[in-house]
Structures are given as structure tokens and as C-alpha cells.
Amino acid sequence: MLNFAAIVPHPPSIIPGVPKANLSPVKKTIKALHELGDELKKFQPETIIIVSPHGPMRYDKFTINLKDNYKGSFARFGIQDEETRFFRNDKILSSKLFRKIKSVNLPIDPIMEEDIDYGSLIPLHYLTKSMVKKPKIIMLTFTSQDWKTHFDFGCHIKNILNETEYNVAFIASADLSHRITDNSPAGFSPYGIKFDQTLIKLLKKNDLEKLLDINPEFSEEAQECGLRSIMMALGVVNSSEADFVQLSYEHPFGVGYLTGRWKLKK
Q: Which domains does the chain have, with CATH numbers?
């Protein structure tokens, strides 16, 4: 069953040891991630399903990674003597998810990738670092299709998790607008901060109708990174049965970093 769901950012700047990284501007995000990790540990998930914007994305198809074992490190960001982290796939549940999604005619490709993308690895680093026994993981990527398709995908995951006896967590890896300030990676747009404020407001209000009605041009202008991850999470949690709680939001480098989780109603 689903017992935990959250939105987590994935900036490399929150990883200690990254050359020239300054952790002070992102201290709210780091504090929130530690808090989120402590909360997740209480629920003792046996499996974490995570959807990332930076995995092996297909333009018109979702992907699910069916490789037995995964590995990843932050050496790509210049950290010397960086350890490699290892995770196992939940083969039974991932195979079941693939068959179910395929059966309802949603486009999905199985892939076999050993390396964990940084959009998955950064959240997993914080959320599992205090766990003695690491959960198994299932890695997903989204498509370029519309919000409703991603919400529906999440709903089908929810149906399968309702039939699953053990504890499962769902993590939406997502950075928000990349156009908030003059030093933003995609340059400044007045719609950048407006997009983030609108999204967070709608999440807190559980206004699913307006969330699904967000104008794609608004999203494109904001240059967000992960709204589709969040749409999938909304389908998984069923927002009428959950309340979203913001733990932190900041944009020190011109990119919106939101950390929060849904409190699921039993």
C-alpha cells in the first residue's frame, strides 16, 4: 500500500563535497530534506517508486527500469573519492506495474539501465541515508504528453498499490521554474515566480481541477522541471484523500526548490 508521497528537488548544489558548492543558500532545502528523511524512516517503506525528469526519457512513452540492480555516485559533479551507492529493484512490483500500464494502453517502454540518474540519486541520498536497511526502488520517467495522461498513469499506480500488502513510498523528483531571477539558468521571466506561487497554492488547496488545467504555455514560459512528476504523484495519492504540506521553498540560484509531502488520510 502507499504510505508516503512527497515532492523533492534535485539540485547538485545540496550535495556536500561538490567543488565550489555553497550550502548556505540552500539550507532551508537541506533542513527540509533531513526532516523528510526522518519522516519517511518512520513509515519503513520496503520500496520507493521515484519518477525523475533526468532519466532516459522517451518523447512519447513512459519508461520503467527493470534492471535487477542499480548504482550511482556523485563523482560526475567533481567529488573526489566519492562512494558508489547501490540499490535493488523491486522486480515483482515493477513487472506488475509494467504489465498493468501496458494493459490499459498507456505508452510505456521497459528499459535496462544500471546507472541511476542524478534526479533520482539526489533525493534517494537524503531520504535513505539514515536507513539501516535500504528500500528497493523502482525508477520511472515521464513523457512529453499532457498533464491528464500523467495523472491517469499515477491513478493506475495507485490501483496497484492498493493491492500491495507491504509499504511503498512515491517520490516526485521535481525542480520548479528555472526563470525566477536574472541569474536563472534559463534567464528571467516574470512568469517564473508566478508559476511557482500558483502551483504551490493549488497544491495546498488540493485544487485538482485547476492543477490539471495549468496552461502548458505558462509551464513552458516558466521552464519548470518536473510538473509531470507532480501530476503523476497527484494521481498516485488521490488529492481528495490527502493534504499537501510544504516543508520548504526557496530559489537561491534562480530555480525554485519545493520540498513537501502529502499527509495521506487513512
A: 2-264 (3.40.830.10)
